[in-house]
UniProtKB/TrEMBL annotation:
UniProt biased composition (Polar residues): 521-532
Pfam families registered for this protein in UniProt: HTH_31, NB-ARC
Molecular function GO labels: ADP binding; DNA binding
Gene name, Swiss-Prot/TrEMBL: afsR1
Name the record gives this protein: Regulatory protein AfsR
PANTHER family the record matches: HTH-TYPE TRANSCRIPTIONAL REGULATOR RV0890C-RELATED, REGULATOR-RELATED
PROSITE patterns per record: HTH_CROC1 (PS50943)
Biased amino acid composition, Low complexity: 424-444, 451-460
Region (Disordered): 418-544
Length: 544
């Protein structure tokens, strides 16, 4: 009987039969063995011996591997929350795919959100649904030398039972063998910490019952046909629950108000919550209220997120290291802006570049999860990421550059207010950079270009929705000044900013009612506005 005839009778592909014949697949799965036995009309003792030899081949393959090189890590025992995300991942397992296309899930999000923990937890939960194994491979995407596609395929092929001498030399050959093995099996492959589309394209399945789950800090917008899950921070109740779970039972209830405050200061980042929980757990004599008071001080908050080799600044620093020089400059200087959010025009003024160059840098920061982009083309930091950016600003920018940043942003905001008038009045046109701003940014003026954008509209007159805030689309409003800034900035070149007399010692201008703050997401507060910021700028500080 020819190989082609056997493939026709059994329903097993000729490629799979060829792999078995050549020794590349020495342990075919039970369904494949049964189909071959039926095609060969094997019965009785002969059939039992045939099936037994195949089973021995599978077991021998596992014994010959000195521990799988792609073994799934253990899951944390105190995993908390992510109910909707786990439901999404469970559906991914059983979702049908079109012929010739594999099912791939992509989990994206900034550092510290628990992408790996979620993927590992889900993989353990669905493991019974994948009788041919669950593989895990760290692609080292944030390291200086990420794992190449060729090396990743070598590790995966070895984990799938292919002997080293039988692994093809080039990436195309390895990828073809990898896809053929996954097509005839039901396996789950978790690819953690991916860095680029090029790295993972060769690792995606070509069809069949196998699944691939990828985690990455980048958006990997170039990947086609993948199911995307954008991971966000934990809610405050989930954060408090995770912190309580890390600390265990005992006197947690007695410290619940302090733990809730600690959870709030962690900003919903599981990594930050784990660091704080581990610090309290390893130091039973520590007072949670005292630690919360220390975290409340923004000047030293980032230093508190350290527990042994766990450091929140290290996690952010790995993303920061991936940026180009211009994007790093943008990232640092955005930390010197007042308010909770900003648009591309103000970012361009801060970085001393053209608006188009500012958009490119902002896109890089969003791609790595260091910025969040929202409706109407506005951007914002996560609180802890902002503190990291501010730390980079003071470490890497000299005092003269920080003072120049303060001067040109203050000048631009004042002229923006004068240009727009009171809140709700239609804008008269874009605010061009002044000669003073260019003079206040030595070395930056050459990076700026004239801006010719359509006349902007104030935020209160914008309809709800996202008219162009997404990647690849540019809003037609290059200049947006939130009403709170319009109120805070003095109207006149001779005016000097002052603190609100109604709140002695307050370092921020009062925030208007929520209905007057359409630019600000719910649940946030504007802790610093132009008045207090420009007051400090005169003292040479950009700390917000």
């Amino acid at each position: 009987m020819t190989l082609e005839r056997l493939a026709e009778l059994s329903g097993v592909s000729a490629r799979a039969l060829s792999d078995m014949e050549r020794g590349r697949s020495r342990g075919p799965q039970h369904g494949t063995v049964a189909a071959l036995a039926d095609a060969l009309s094997l019965e009785g003792d002969v059939r039992e011996r045939f099936v037994g030899l195949a089973r021995d081949g599978r077991l021998r393959g596992h014994r010959e591997r000195p521990g799988s090189p792609c073994e799934l890590p253990c899951s944390v025992t105190d995993f908390t929350g992510r109910t909707a995300e786990r439901v999404w991942l469970s559906r991914l397992v059983y979702e049908e795919s079109a012929p010739g296309t594999g099912v791939v899930g992509l989990i994206t999000g900034t550092a510290g959100l628990g992408k790996t923990a979620l993927a590992v937890r889900a993989a353990h939960a669905v493991r019974p649904s994948f009788p041919d194994g669950v593989l895990f491979l760290d692609l080292c995407g944030m390291s200086r030398q990420p794992l190449s596609a060729g090396d990743a395929l070598r590790s995966l092929l070895r984990a799938l039972g292919v002997a080293e001498r039988q692994i093809p030399d080039g990436v195309p050959g390895r990828a073809s063998l990898y896809r053929s093995l996954l097509r005839d099996r039901r396996a789950l492959v978790v690819l953690d910490n991916a860095t680029s589309e090029e790295q993972v394209r060769a690792l995606m399945p070509g069809g069949g019952a196998s699944r691939v789950l990828i985690t990455t800090r980048r958006l990997l917008a170039g990947l086609e046909g993948v199911r995307r899950l954008a991971l966000g921070p934990l809610s405050l109740p989930e954060s408090a629950q995770l912190l309580s779970g890390i600390l265990g039972g005992g006197a947690v209830s007695d410290r619940q108000p302090a733990l809730t405050r600690l959870a709030e200061l962690c900003g919903g980042l599981p990594l930050a919550l784990r660091i704080i929980g581990n610090r309290l757990l390893s130091r039973p004599g520590w007072d949670a209220d005292e630690l919360a008071a220390r975290l409340a001080n923004e000047g030293c908050r980032l230093d508190q997120f350290t527990a042994g080799d766990l450091k929140i600044a290290h996690a952010f620093g790995m993303s920061y290291a991936q940026l180009s020089d211009s994007s790093r400059r943008m990232f640092r200087r955005l930390a010197g802006l007042p308010g909770q959010d900003f648009d591309a025009d103000l970012a361009a003024v801060a970085a001393g570049v053209s608006v188009e160059d500012a958009w490119a840098a902002l896109d890089d920061l969003v791609d790595l999860g260091l910025l969040h982009d929202g409706a109407a083309g506005r951007f914002r930091f996560h609180d802890l990421v902002r503190l990291f950016a501010r730390d980079r600003l003071h470490r890497e920018e000299p005092l003269a550059e920080r003072e120049a940043l303060s001067a040109r942003v203050t000048s631009w905001l004042r002229r923006s207010v004068a240009r727009h008038g009171r809140p709700g009045r239609p804008a008269a046109g874009p605010v061009a950079p002044s000669d003073a701003e260019a003079a206040a940014a030595p070395g930056d003026a050459a990076r700026r270009a004239p801006r010719t954008s359509p006349a902007p509209a104030l935020l209160p007159s914008e309809p709800p929705g996202d008219p162009g805030g997404g990647r690849g689309r540019r809003p037609t409003r290059p200049c947006q000044v939130p009403p709170v800034l319009l109120r805070a900035v003095p109207h006149g070149p001779s005016s000097s900013p002052r603190l609100d007399s109604r709140a002695p010692g307050q370092t921020a201008w009062p925030v208007p009612p929520a209905q007057e703050r359409p630019w600000q997401p719910s649940g946030t507060s504007c802790s610093c506005t132009v008045a207090s910021w420009t007051d400090r700028a005169g003292r040479g500080s950009t700390t917000t």
